[in-house]
Design brief:
Shape: globular
Structural class: alpha/beta
Largest sheet: 6 strands, mixed
Strand content: 5-15%
Number of helices: 20
Order of helices and strands: HHHHHHHHHHHHHHHHHEHEEHEHEE
Length: 435
């Protein structure tokens, strides 16, 4: 999607953000579609609450797979709701559509894309007298498998080490270990997810609590609904709570992981709002207008907020240090590359590792190593954390006779990043002073 957008519109931020923007709009339409079944009197209200919330708007603006993941997950849940809401079993055609969209969600971001499916299974097993055989439609499963696994299978066939990388580093380590160093502490879930969920859905969650008579009464009403086996509330509760519990238990935690949960949260918030007599059409319109103004002002302010993670700022610093006409690619050594530089500098960006790499680098990563890169004689610039400089120079020496030029450094992502050029040389590996 990103490559197509850039090919049509050119290398610019509009092209980079277009897929996320389209996914955002598509998700809003799907939320409206779900609202037609779960809140038929005001189906537009959940879509309004979702689209004018801080977290979905910011998430759609970030160039990542998360906005597409939310779209595919919501499409799968829309298909399930269409299959389920009539109460006479699961319509086969919609169930097959559900599996197709879950396949796209899995292809987009792997196992996290199937968390709503776990919620569906849990809900059906505990609360419905519907055979799971109707859910696991054979043609739907085949469709899912073809969409979900084909890309992974082709990649693993080309690079067999990637299977271990995927299952080990990207799945097992994220769930059970602190290897990724992403808020793995026992309190990490409260520190990362709680602020996002509290602030990310403003002002709609606060208005929903007021509409329900306050937090205590809202909680009592929710418990009463669940005890009364309200099918719609039960489905929404499973959809929101089960993925949240898994995100909290997993040891790798980032704010955008919970972005898909704002869809069921908006659907839940809309229910008391739809019955609130104070919220007249005029007041709702003014609330939406004020919220949209604040969100757009905040977005405009953030666009000019200086950050050491801003690839635009990094690109300006890199241009001061190197002549891009003489560079084929920027290779980040032993660290996660800043892929945003590719957009702003118009050059390739990749990650390579040192043969004798430190223990923190996963043994499953099948990147090209430094000696292989040097043997290719490419016109590369090598970037690495400045405190790894000596290790880098020693590694270059082990690859053969090369000379190392230190071009300078810039600050990014809480680290001093040093830039080097390596040329064929005669034995010694001097480090030249920064220019």
């Amino acid at each position: 999607a990103l490559a197509s957008s850039v090919a049509v519109l050119g290398r610019n931020e509009w092209a980079a953000r277009l897929p996320g923007a389209l996914a955002f709009i598509g998700t809003g339409l799907l939320v409206f579609g779900i609202g037609r079944r779960l809140l038929p009197a005001k189906p537009w209200l959940p879509a309004l609450a979702w689209g004018l919330s801080l977290a979905p708007l910011i998430g759609a603006n970030i160039v990542s797979t998360d906005a597409l993941l939310v779209f595919f997950e919501t499409a799968a849940m829309f298909a399930f709701v269409e299959a389920w809401w009539r109460g006479d079993g699961l319509a086969r055609g919609w169930i097959r559509a559900m599996w197709m969209f879950f396949g796209l969600a899995f292809m987009t971001k792997g196992p996290p894309g199937l968390l709503p499916l776990l919620a569906i299974i849990g809900y059906l097993v505990v609360h419905e007298r519907i055979s799971l055989a109707r859910l696991f439609d054979p043609l739907g499963l085949v469709t899912f498998a073809l969409i979900a696994f084909t890309w992974f299978a082709l990649l693993v066939a080309q690079q067999p080490d990637r299977l271990g990388y995927f299952l080990g580093y990207e799945v097992y380590d994220r769930v059970f270990t602190a290897r990724h160093q992403r808020n793995a502490q026992w309190y990490g879930a409260f520190e990362i997810y709680l602020p996002v969920l509290l602030v990310g859905a403003l002002p709609w969650t606060v208005l929903a609590l007021v509409a329900a008579g306050g937090p205590r009464r809202a909680w009592a009403t929710l418990i009463a609904r669940l005890r009364a086996r309200d099918r719609q509330w039960l489905l929404l509760a499973w959809w929101f709570l089960l993925p949240l519990a898994i995100f909290c238990l997993a040891r790798s935690r980032l704010q955008l992981y919970v972005l898909p949960l704002f869809v069921p949260l908006a659907l839940m918030a809309a229910r008391p709002l739809a019955r609130w007599e104070w919220l007249t059409t005029r007041r709702l319109a003014w609330t939406a207008l004020l919220t949209a103004t604040i969100l757009l002002a905040a977005k405009g302010t953030l666009a000019y907020w200086s950050s050491d993670r801003d690839a635009r700022e990094m690109a300006r610093e890199v241009r001061k240090l190197i002549d891009l006409d003489e560079v084929e690619e920027i290779a980040f050594v032993g660290m996660r590359p800043f892929y945003g530089l590719s957009l702003y500098l118009g050059t390739s960006v990749e990650s390579i590792h040192i043969v004798d790499r430190p223990q923190q680098y996963s043994k499953f990563v099948a990147e090209e190593d430094l000696c292989e890169e040097l043997a290719a004689r490419e016109k590369n610039i090598y970037a690495l954390k400045a405190h790894h400089e000596q290790m880098f120079v020693e590694a270059v020496a082990n690859c053969g006779s090369f000379e190392v030029d230190r071009l300078g450094e810039f600050f990014a992502d809480d680290n001093d990043i040093a830039l080097f050029r390596i040329r064929p040389g005669g034995g010694a590996v001097p480090i030249l002073g920064s220019r």
